[in-house]
Amino acid sequence: MHDGLTVEFDVHLGHGPAGRRELRPGNAPTEPDPPVGSVPRVARLMALAIRCEELIRRGEVADYADLARLGHVTRARITQIMNLLNLAPDIQEEILFLPSTTKGCDRIAERHLRRLSGVIDWTEQRRRWRSLRDDRMAG
Known about the structure:
Layout: E1 11-15, E2 21-25, H1 41-57, H2 64-71, H3 75-82, H4 89-96, H5 110-117, H6 122-138
Antiparallel strand pairs: 1-2
Helix pairs in contact: 2-3
């Protein structure tokens, strides 16, 4: 027998225990917007240098030669990447949080930072970094 009563409510499929799919009440959660652009290559290399330094410090990797073997790159390339750690900490942080590249090439290339990482005085590094950043990010 049908009494003419209809009940409606929103449900969506979600993941339950052990990854099982289950019905859940309410609307499905909205997906976050996909990130626009890509992380600049120098930011990824900076993060890699920090991670590699941590691996060496903890003794999980013996030295740069080990890193080179594991990464299938030359020892010279590992040295170039690890030299990013010679930058002042605040410059390293700025590099890690550079804005995404949405079109064209990255504005700051690794070659720009190689010269900068060779400067020993952090005050001079900061001055040169500000000049480089302002010149490259303005265009």
